[in-house]
Amino acid sequence: MITPDHKLSLTRQAELLQLSRASLYYEPVGTCAADLELMRRIDELHLEWPFLGSRMLRDLLRLEGTVVGRRHVATLMRRMGIEALYRRSNTSRRHPRHAIYPYLLRKLAIDRPNQVWAADVTYIPMARGFVYLVAVMDWYSRKVLSWRISNSMTADFCVEALEEAITKYGAPEIFNTDQGSQFTASSFIQVLQKNHIRISMDGRGAWRDNVFVERLWKSVKYEEVYLHAYDSVAAAKEGIGKIHQLLQRPAASHGA
Predict the structure, then answer these.
(1) In terms of C-beta density within 10 A (0-12 exposed, 13-18 middle, 19 or more buried), how is residue 16 classed?
(2) Is pLDDT at 105 greater than 80 in this prediction?
(3) 121 - beta bridge partners?
């Protein structure tokens, strides 16, 4: 999809295709086929039982006939960016020098669109390696306003998703995220401040605050990702793009 010798710059091509600039330089991760298969199964188990750590996941895998050690399971989980939810996901690891903002949603009645938006990042398995998917969601309607894919956890693809959502729908009153370094980065915070958006961040370990986004990840993975083995970032974006209606679909219920 990206053509290096095209008259348009690589950056402009990426913008037109809604790709993160970092994804242009993606090279498949050198992970063996057995580990990639195991990582996919760990991801499936993590979606079903997000509170399980490496020991219990090891035990479940052994019950299924896969003999694997706890340390190897823990290593693969770190590579994937997941942990038991009571310890919060590695995709939400805090940067020690970034400012953390207070949580603003406690006892707040969320009763209209554009009142509160939220964002989260998840791991997407591929045939040779993996990428990350970020989504911006309206908490009232549960509608996905924008999304981006990247092979790295830098802030740029999250900033691009945020800017697109604001351009399409206007600025929300409050934007809520976890304390992940991509959301506390100055480039992300500056976009929120420039648009006079109040910043809210979950308390450490408060995974339930983004439960609606977590439900979205489950739908995306079972309805698309697990049915395919993407062989490139472009293929992953194209595949997830095919479920555009799912990503845009508001939930039936409202409220916090």
Answers:
(1) exposed
(2) yes
(3) 134
User: Contact at 8 Å (CB) between 131 and 156?
Assistant: no
Sign of CA dihedral 142, 221, 84, 160: negative
pTM: 0.70
Tell me how crowded residue 129 is: count the other CB atoms within 10 A of its CB.
21
* Residue 255's pLDDT band (cuts 50, 70, 90): very low
196 torsion bin: left (phi>0), alpha (psi -120 to 50), beta (else): left
Q: Which of 9-18, 167-176, 223-232 has the highest mean pLDDT?
A: 167-176
Tens digit of pLDDT for each residue in 164-223?
A: 999 999 999 999 998 888 999 999 999 999 999 999 987 654 545 556 777 888 888 888
Nearest to 177, CA basis, from 210, 146, 155, 153: 210
The pLDDT value given to residue 140? 92
Helix axis angle for 156-169 and 186-194, nearest 10°, is: 10
User: d(Cα 11, Cα 24) in Å, to the nearest integer?
Assistant: 9
Nearest-5° Cα angle at 228, 227 to 232: 155
Non-local (6+) Cβ contacts of 35 within 8 A are 76
For 96-128, give one letter per residue: b (16+ CB within 10 A) or e: eebeebeeeeeeeeeeebbbbbbbbbbbbbbbe
- Which comes out higher in pLDDT, residue 216 or 94? 216
For the cut 70, the answer to whether the pLDDT of residue 152 exceeds it is yes
Q: Which stretches does DSSP call E strand in the chain?
A: 116-126, 129-138, 144-150, 174-177, 198-201
Burial class (CB in 10 A: 0-12, 13-18, 19+), 148: buried
